[in-house]
Amino acid sequence: MRGGALRPLFVLVFGMPLLVSGCGWTPLYADTEETPANTELRAIRVDPIAERIGQKLEIALRNSLAAAGEPTPKRYRLHTTLAVSRQDLGIQAQGLATRGKVDVYATYVLSDLQSGAVLLNNSTHSANDFDINANEYATVVGEVDAGTRTVEELDREIVARLTLFMQRRVAEGAAKPG
């Protein structure tokens, strides 16, 4: 009886670290590995972006690129422009829409601050939909939420592409002799 009661406790105590380690969980106060690409990402100055959704993307990019919060001299400039459109989908026979969609196209240019040379010119797109309700407030909240999801997706995509670019740039610089 006693051995049977200890078995679940044994599995819980020794099995939990194995489960947690496989899910991508990291300790809150863990030392993150500092790479040269991270230093380069922190050196990017994010220019202001027009419109409210642009302001949200600007803040998200600044937070993502300088996640450590360490002051770093700026060597690069990231200029981003957005093209935002909203369209109604799911039109009923009475002509009322039941579904809406927010499309955001982001074009971004990474340039060197000293020389002004364009280092990277790219664009990305994100779309999210929302319900259109008889209650106008619920529709506005849904549209704002779709915009927030769009900003999060654009932020992840732009940061991922900038990270790959900086990793490649650092690796090419390290590979050059002398």
Structure in words:
With about 180 residues, the chain is of the alpha+beta class. The chain has four helices and four strands. The protein has helices at about 1-20, 35-40, 50-65, 135-175; strands at about 45, 75-90, 95-110, 120-130. It has a four-stranded mixed sheet. A hairpin with a 5-residue loop joins strand 2 (about 75-90) and strand 3. Helix 2 packs across helix 4 (about 135-175). The mean pLDDT is about 85.
Reconstruct the topology from this structure.
Layout: H1 2-21, H2 36-42, E1 44-46, H3 52-65, E2 76-91, E3 97-112, E4 118-131, H4 136-175
Parallel strand pairs: 1-2
Antiparallel strand pairs: 2-3, 3-4
Helix pairs in contact: 2-4, 3-4
What share of the residues does DSSP label as strand, in percent?
25-35%
What structural class results from the helix and strand content?
alpha+beta
Instruction: Give the N-terminus to C-terminus distance in angstroms.
Output: 71 Å
Mean pLDDT: 83
Give a quick account of the main beta sheet: strands, pairing sense, barrel closure: 4 strands, mixed
